[in-house]
Amino acid sequence: MSRLELRGVHKDFSGVEVLHGVDLSGDTGEVIGVVGANGAGKSTLIKILSGALPMSQGEMWMDGERVDLRSPHDAHDRGIRTVYQELSLVPELSVTENLLMGSFPRRFGLIDWTAAHSRAQQLLDRVGFGAINPKSKAGQLSVARQQMVEIAKALVSEPRVLVLDEPSAVLAGSDLAALFALVRQLRDSGVLVIYVSHRLVEVLELASSIVVIKDGRIIETTVPQQTNEDELIRLMAGRRLEQIYPPRRHAPGQVLLDAEGLQLRAGEIVGLFGLVGSGRSELAHRIFRHPAKAIKDGLAFVTEDRARSGLVLGMPVRDNISLTTWRSNAKGPFIDASAQRRDVARMVEQLGIRPANCAAMPAVHLSGGNQQKVVLAKWLLRNPRVLLLDEPTRGVDMATRVDIYRMVDQLARQGLAVLLISSELTEVIGATDRVLVMHQGRITGELNSADTGEDEVLAYAMGRNV
Description:
This is Ribose import ATP-binding protein RbsA 2. By secondary structure, this protein is α/β, with parallel strands linked by helices. It has 2 domains: 4-237, Rossmann fold (3-Layer(aba) Sandwich), CATH 3.40.50.300; 255-461, 3-Layer(aba) Sandwich (Rossmann fold), CATH 3.40.50.300. Helix content is 34%, strand content 24%. It has helices at 42-49, 72-77, 95-100, 113-126, 143-154, 173-188, 200-206, 229-237, 280-287, 291-296, 306-309, 317-321, 337-351, 368-380, 398-413, 425-430, 454-461; strands at 4-13, 16-26, 31-35, 57-62, 65-67, 80-83, 106-107, 110-111, 161-165, 192-196, 209-214, 217-222, 255-259, 262-265, 269-274, 299-302, 330-331, 334-335, 386-390, 417-421, 434-439, 442-448. Strand 9, helix 6 and strand 10 form a beta-alpha-beta unit. The model has no long low-confidence stretch (mean pLDDT 91).
């Protein structure tokens, strides 16, 4: 008898089927790794598990009993908690309020704030993130620390099944190690963990079994001992990726940006790396702190949180892509619809946004990778001179990453200067010409990507003399 079992799960949207008879099972003390390209059906599967979406056909069983989840509340009652890739904290509330919402300790009928903050601190300590102040406003934390709070929040009710959707996308260093330790701790305590990630190294390290989903179907179930990254990528993408990072290494041109202790030159991709709290994202925001002037000066900024500051999720794709150019496409007080259609069609084709007929779709219905392409399209329509990319491949599958790396390389070869901020060492070295390393708000190292390694970059990031 399995802790959780899905049998023949189908899901369609307006007659378009996106899941085609998915079967999945897992038992107590297991970690099931789920991998697949963007648009494969992972997000839909997660939403069905969390009660956020009803299945069109199929069955769900828990501990030998058939269950019918009609809402996330039903899932919570059954002991299923989900940590989504997109953050759901209330930014104006404290960490304690976000963690304990609906379950505050009380005294004489009033919230016992001393006990509440203590309970929140215990939760943060348990997940290895005790350095976070529970009294801090959630919105003032970095995206990485908000992710940590999201994970801690899911543990308040002691879940039996924990679904983690790209939990490590913005984590690095000790924070990533803390996440791994937590997953193993939960596994050993009997929790079934469903770990969805594009970071295949992590899946191979943590998972008891690995499920590959493609085009709404599970096409392979395997174990880490019998597969490797190359094979998983082949299954996900339907092809082998012979070269992930384009060859860089060519002479940069004139300086296009000289600010805040860094220079960006035409035709150059500069990586920026730092551990959580180092100030890497804050540096990008400071460079772009006057958006109207920055845009006018030829800067474009793809932020690390596409859902909150990159897209208007409820608006159609066409309007999201046109956000930065609607003035130039205006005819008096009206948008030039024909010009908008041409621009959108060109960007959808150029970036390979899927589905190809997505112009009228709300952006919220796209996969994470295609949402990221929409954000990029929005800025590329302005023909910028300097492109700031903060975690551009967060939550993006390897095949789509390769597309993004090649696109960025092509833009650099056309004369753009690119700053690529990433928490992934392999990416920040492999996709760039130079790497700048930050520690405690300062740039502590500048390294040639071709001549450095991960250990050297990490040493600078930790403030050590190299």
